[in-house]
Amino acid sequence: MRIYFAGSIRGGCQDAALYHDIVRLLQKHGEVLTEHVADAELRVLGQDIGDCKIHDRDLDWLKKSDYLVAEVTTPSLGVGYEIGKATEWGKPVLCLYRQENGRSLSAMISGCKAATVRTYQSPAELTGILEEFFQDN
Questions:
Q1: At residue 39, what are phi and psi to the nearest 5 degrees?
Q2: Are 111 and 95 in contact (CB under 8 A)?
Q3: Using only C-alpha atoms, what is the Rg of the chain?
Q4: Which contiguous run of DSSP H or E holds residue 123?
Q5: Would you place residue 43 in the very low, low, confident or very high pLDDT band (cuts 50, 70, 90)?
């Protein structure tokens, strides 16, 4: 099973440790094609390969994946784009959202019938959420 993990890279510096935890949990279910999203240095240095190459590479990985799991607490145009493509291509999509004061999830995500949205407060809750998602899909 191949899993595409999506999380805000350019705007999600504060979530690097959380993304690492999520990738580690996802690896129990299959191959994570986008482990680099959890790399703290990526957030500081960025990727020096150009935006077009990043776009094309990531879409290629998304096409090859069986599932998309996205952490959507920190808004990201890129993650939204990936969710849109994955649902268009009929891939099972899981969106993980931590409810925070002053923030609400986009209606384009929460209202998408082709995506499963699960709220959580701590990484400890993710094990059960992931197990349920992969069993159901």
A1: -80, 115
A2: no
A3: 14
A4: none
A5: very low
Picking from 130, 110, 124, 98, the residue whose alpha carbon sits closest to that of residue 3 is 130
What is the separation of C-alpha 81 from the centre of its chain, rounded to a whole number of angstroms?
11
DSSP codes of every residue in 1-33:
-EEEEE--SSS-GGGHHHHHHHHHHHTTTSEET
Q: Cα angle vertex 16, ends 112, 23, to 5°?
A: 65
3-state secondary structure of 98: strand
110-125 pLDDT, tens digit per residue, is: 999 999 999 999 999 9
Q: Cα dist. 55→23, 66, 99, 104, 122 in Å?
A: 21, 19, 29, 27, 31
Q: Which residues of 103-124 are buried (b: 16+ CB within 10 A; e: fewer)?
A: eebeeebeebeebbbeebeebe
Residues shown for the chain? 137
Q: Quick one: DSSP state of residue 71?
A: E
Say what the pLDDT of residue 48 is. 65
